[in-house]
Structure formats: C-alpha cells, structure tokens
Automatic annotation (TrEMBL):
Residues 11-242 form the ABC transporter domain. It comes from the Bacteria. Keywords: ATP-binding, Cell membrane, Membrane, Nucleotide-binding, Translocase, Transport. SUPFAM superfamilies: MOP-like, P-loop containing nucleoside triphosphate hydrolases. GO terms for molecular function: ABC-type transporter activity; ATP binding; ATP hydrolysis activity. This is Spermidine/putrescine ABC transporter ATP-binding protein.
C-alpha cells in the first residue's frame, strides 16, 4: 500500500479514572496523549487496567471521571460507532459462514462508498494482509494467525481514524505469535494510523511500539520509547517487568572521593541520586555482565542453560546471584570458577 491517505487523529486522555459498580478501582486518574499516527502500546501485568482504558477510548466503558478527546472532538459521551475507531479483540469473531472476502467486504458495506471503490479497497487489503490466496476460504479453513489477519483486514476496511487492539496475538501459539508480531510491526509502519495496542508481553511491546506506556495497578509507571523503557527504567517495577534483569543488594558508603556502591563482590563509584548512606537495590541486565580473562571478580557457576543462540548462566558471587548471557560457543560448566566484569555505566538505579 502507498503512503496511507487515512487522516490520523490524536487522542487526549484527561484525568480519566474508572471505578466499577462493585467498587473495584481499575484505573486511578490518568493523563495520556497519543500523537497522530503514533503506535502506543499499553504494557503491564494482567489486571493492571489496560483493557479498561482501551475500552473507555472505544466507548465500550464509561469513565468514572475525566474526558477523552479524539482530534479536537470530546467523545466522552459518544457511543462507540460515532468515534471513528476500529477495534481488534483477542478472539477473532469472524462470521463463520462468510468467506475471507465476504468478511472483509462486510466492514465496507457499513460505509457509503461505491462498488468500484469497494472492490479496489478489498484487493488492497487482501494484498496488505497476505490473504489474496485465501480469499475464498471460510474461517474454519484458516489457521489462527490467518483468521486474525482477516479480522484486522475487516477492521481496516472501515477506514478507522483510530485503531485499538486488545491482546490480538494472545490466542496464537508461540511461533505464529512471533511471526505475526513482526508482520504487525511492518503493517503499522505502512499504515500511519493512530494505534493503541494492549499487551502483557514485553517482547511484543518492544517490537511494535513507537512508545510504550507501562502500567501497574491502575497507574502509569513510565512512558517512553522501547529503548528508554529498557535502558532507563524509572522504577524497580519497570526494570523487572521489561526484560531480564539482575536485582542486586548494595550498600552506599561514603569515601574520600564521593560515595561508593558496594555490591559485596565489587565496588564502584555511586551514581544514584539519593545522598543518603543506605542499603539499596540496583539492577543490571544479563548482557552487562561478561566473562573476562583479566582480573575481574570471582564467581562460581551454578547452572548453565542452553538457549540455542546463547547460554544463560547462573553464577554466584559474595552471596549474590547473577544471571549472565554468554555466546553458545563458550566453554563453561556447572561448578566452574570464573572471572566476571560488569559494565559500570549500565548499573540501573531505579
Ligand atoms: N466489569 C467489571 N467489574 C468489576 N471489575 C472489573 C470489571 N472489568 C474489569 N474489572 C477489574 O478491573 C481491573 C482491571 O481490569 P482490566 O482492565 O481488564 O485489566 P488488564 O486488561 O490489564 O488485564 C481488574 O482488577 C479487573 O478484575
Ligand atoms: Mg485485558
């Protein structure tokens, strides 16, 4: 598809909160802006309020307080069909007696466009979603991944100004999920439609997002590009939820040339913000610890797990556990005594 002609809309969420009838508070008041054409991923554990927020943008749920704007239109009181949104759910919900093309055409028939235009749009969507060969099939003759591609095509057929997706890959098996995740990432780059995408899977979020909003217990923990979220997590929750990470106990100690971070097995200049001398936890990614031939610090290998493209090694030093990743051609065994180094500038003070 050529550069899309779709008019992208920004979304503004202002002080939106949700407490359900039974008293469950799913969302604390939230402020969030989604730029026109941006792919924003809401990421967080089950029950943190992602779907509730998405459903309120869609108009399927009414906020307890606050306002939602799409473009410069306040849509808070509008029903879903008046908001110009397309919603893709976890379950595909295709019409079982309609073929692939009939399912896609269904979305277009709701709009008043000419027969010629409909046909052209159908061909475009079949090609875009790699469905041309499958156009005459019924949903039951398709794999889960193919069905979800049809569901997405059907939603795109309605020319939504906003695309909302709630865990659209969750029902698929691991291999298919990985495949469709990359397809979706490419699709979004072509579409330029403002998209809010919900997932609890951080790998999926990384692959798809322009920006990730990490949620926990009804609040936003952090918002940033995938890189910012991974490299500069602002809280221990974000550090631990996104990617693998070592959590290390440390003491902040005073020394002549400024404070020192003492990990027990290793000391380095303290770069955190707090001035207090205290016990703290810091974080370090597995890729920021490495084997060395030189004098590093000594560690004992407790476990070696082969993961195909690398080994994940569990080591122990000074009573602390360290998970590290090493190349799959490394000679390393349980019980080995090894020398390790850490990339000091990669220590995360969250
Ligand atoms: N209709 C409802 N009535 C009462 N509580 C609800 C309802 N829908 C969701 N919740 C609760 O609100 C919280 C957030 O739910 P949800 O937004 O579905 O989380 P997520 O999508 O992040 O898994 C959860 O505690 C959930 O049990
Ligand atoms: Mg959900």
């Amino acid at each position: 598809m050529e550069e899309s002609t779709v008019q992208s809309m920004e979304i503004a969420i202002r002080g939106v909160s949700k407490t359900f009838q039974d008293g469950t508070t799913a969302l604390q008041p939230i402020d969030l802006q989604v730029a026109a054409g941006e792919v924003l991923v809401l990421l967080g554990p089950s029950g943190c309020g992602k779907s509730t927020l998405l459903r309120m943008i869609a108009g399927l749920e009414q906020p307890t307080a606050g306002r939602i704007l799409i473009g410069d239109r306040d849509v808070t009181q509008l029903p879903p069909e008046k908001r110009g949104i397309g919603f893709v759910f976890q379950q595909y919900a295709l019409f079982p007696t309609m073929t692939v093309e009939e399912n896609i055409m269904f979305g277009m028939k709701l709009r008043k466009i000419g027969k010629q235009e409909q046909k052209a749009k159908l061909e475009e969507l079949l090609a875009l979603m790699n469905l041309t060969e499958l156009r005459k099939r019924l949903p039951i003759q398709l794999s889960g991944g193919q069905q979800q591609r049809v569901a997405i095509a059907r939603v795109l057929a309605t020319d939504p100004m906003i695309l909302l997706m709630d865990e659209p890959l969750t029902a698929l098996d691991a291999k298919l999920k990985e495949h469709l995740r990359l397809e979706l990432a490419q699709l979004f780059r072509k579409l330029h439609i403002t998209t809010v995408y919900v997932t609890h899977d951080q790998t999926e979020a990384m692959a798809i997002a322009d920006r990730i909003v990490v949620m926990n217990k009804g609040v936003i923990e952090q918002s940033g590009t995938p890189k910012e979220i991974y490299l500069k997590p602002k809280s221990s929750f974000v550090a631990q939820f996104v990617g693998q990470v070592n959590r290390l106990r440390a003491k902040v100690k005073t020394a002549e040339r400024g404070n020192v971070l003492d990990l027990g097995f290793y000391q380095l200049p303290y770069k955190g913000e707090s001035r207090a001398v205290a016990d703290i936890d810091v974080f370090l990614r597995p890729e920021d610890v490495y084997l060395t031939q030189e004098a590093g610090f000594s560690a004992r290998v407790q476990d070696v797990i082969f993961l195909g493209d690398h080994y994940r090694v569990i080591a122990e030093s000074g009573g602390q556990k360290l998970v590290i990743d090493v190349g799959n051609d490394t000679l390393i065994h349980e019980g080995d005594q090894v020398q390790l180094e850490i990339r000091e500038d990669k220590i995360i003070y969250a």
